[in-house]
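notes to self, project folder thing:

trying the whole complex as one job this time. last attempt i did each chain seperately and stitching them together was a nightmare. two parts in total, labels are on each line so i dont mix them up again. if this works i'll redo the older ones the same way
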Amino acid sequence: MKNFKKVLAVVMALALIVTCFAACGKKDTSNDKKDAVLKIGFTGPLTGDNAQYGLAVQYGAQLAIDEINAAGGVNGMKLELLYQDDMADPAAAVTGYSKLIDDGMKVSLGGVTSGACTAFLGEAADDNMFMLTPSATAVEAIQGAYAFRVCFSDPAQGTVSADYIKDNGVAEKVAVIYDSSDAYSSGIYKNFIAEAKVKGLDVVAEESYTKNTKTDFSAQLQSVKNSGADLLFLPIYYNEASLILAQAKTAGLNVKVFGCDGLDGLVSMENFDKTLAENVMLLTPFSTSATDDLTVNFVKNFKAKYSETYLNQFGADAYDAIYILKAAIEKANVTADMDASAICEALKKAMVEITFTGVTGTDITWGADGEPVKKPIAVKIVNGEYVVM
Amino acid sequence: MEFLSAIIAGISLGSIYALIALGYTMVYGIAKMLNFAHGDVIMVGAFMMFIALTKMGLHPILCIIFGTVICTILGVVIEKLAYKPLRKATSLAVLITAIGVSYFLQNSAQLIFGAGSKTFTSLFGSGNISLFDGQIIISHNTIVTICVSVIIMIGLTLFINKTKTGRAMLAVSEDKGAAQLMGINVNKTISITFAIGSALAAIAGALLCSSYPILSPTTGAMPGIKAFTAAVLGGIGSIPGAMIGGILLGVIENISKVYISTQLSDAIVFGILIIILLVKPTGILGKKMNEKV
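result (full assembly):
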């Protein structure tokens, strides 16, 4: 009996080794032209506090990939989406990156949120891995010649918002409430204040909160009320914005509200009292109520497959990201036998040459710094719908 | 006037912290474990009430009862399945299990209800009371929160000190072995503790989400940590300590936001916590337990 156990152990060990080699062998052949699959990977918060953003990116990208594959792929290759959950945590993004490399990622969409994307970027540098992030807005998230983005950067949003408010005479005295524990929010805040100074826009109150104090805003709202501001600038995400709007009503604060793309998603919140968002203005590159064919189709197909909760700018950015990659791959003539580094070299040349029209902008071009050149749309929420101003 | 409204807002937030802290402190006192899943029970309670209100269209009172009953059952089930098998294990193992249960609840809620945030409709109406020509505005939610918290705290104190079950809980918290020898059913007492703690969590969930109307699978996490801090501040294991700790935390947080800086309020709250724990390591009302040999 003892011997039998020994024999069994040896046999099992051998079996394990054989399957290992078998798996390795399979991996090698997957690069053959027969399979011709190009794997695109990203990490994003698929669970936890920011899951709605990560899932939106996953669904948006998958929708575009399914459409492209159904139409025959790109350069004879089928696309495949790989993803890892990073819970918006930079450390988890690094782990996720290694897993994606193991799974055969050749091109990346980077990280979904700024902090995680910056960590992802550091790893990608070592492998010369091409990166086109749909939604990481921080400046440092795309530093490096191999990194590009679809969305606006934080400085661009802060500057554009201050310019818009001043140039269109929206308000004279402005108050700001921002999240000091969040890179996105404080990035916009800093650039907004700097541009406001340049433009001569009067900032009368600067209040903040952190991720640990994001329930009670009565103190901040009281200070805004006392400052006599006629506009409240909210460079924050819509979750907290919904609370701020509700509490502003209770506090009897009656000012105009202006926000950035983080407020996109406010009116699609389940059970949200849409009258609170009446007349809220925001700058966003994507609007679900746009009437061009691309947007109409995207909205229709997205709703058919996924929950409407995730139909927001993040999903639209990711959907565009895949089509931008497709355009760049066609331009650079990327084939499946190229390795990640060669693909990166080819794509980074192609990126600055293409002009792209998608759901998040028309005739978008890219500079060598990786920033997109496009115009934001200013919209106003009227009766729960976006109306272009 | 500004001072008064800051105090009122602080007490309102603080009484919610206190209600949650009661759950932490009772379980710690009796089972000698930190139940980190407690914050997520709040979230489950709030989701149940949200569904009862928006999908089933029940009366707000029935919604609260529905959520409370579900949470009570949930609390007992969690204790039976996850913690009871570990009664003899090291406290570290139990702690890790509790964190596991917390993640389990959060991620299950995300799978079932989706990751997006929902707006919670107040269960207590949405009116305001305006005092001194509008210088102080108090919402109905604030008044209900403070009243309910006071009633619950008085009720709980009476229950613990006057009833047989309550005294059994006190006995178990002092010495499990001796209590068992006196004929107290320790397992049943622990179950009752979890049931009461979870029911309080559900009520705290109703108050929290009515005052701050947003609901997502991670809604309970942050107030949970704050309440745990409050429980430590007041002296973990002590019921009046949890109440004092909770209200103190809420008031300090709000006053520092109004008068010092919204950026620094966290640093101030936790700075005060460190000072109090340096002066009195067991917390404000904590008792020093001598190791019995």
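what i see at first glance: The radius of gyration of chain A is 23 Å.
need to look closer tmrw
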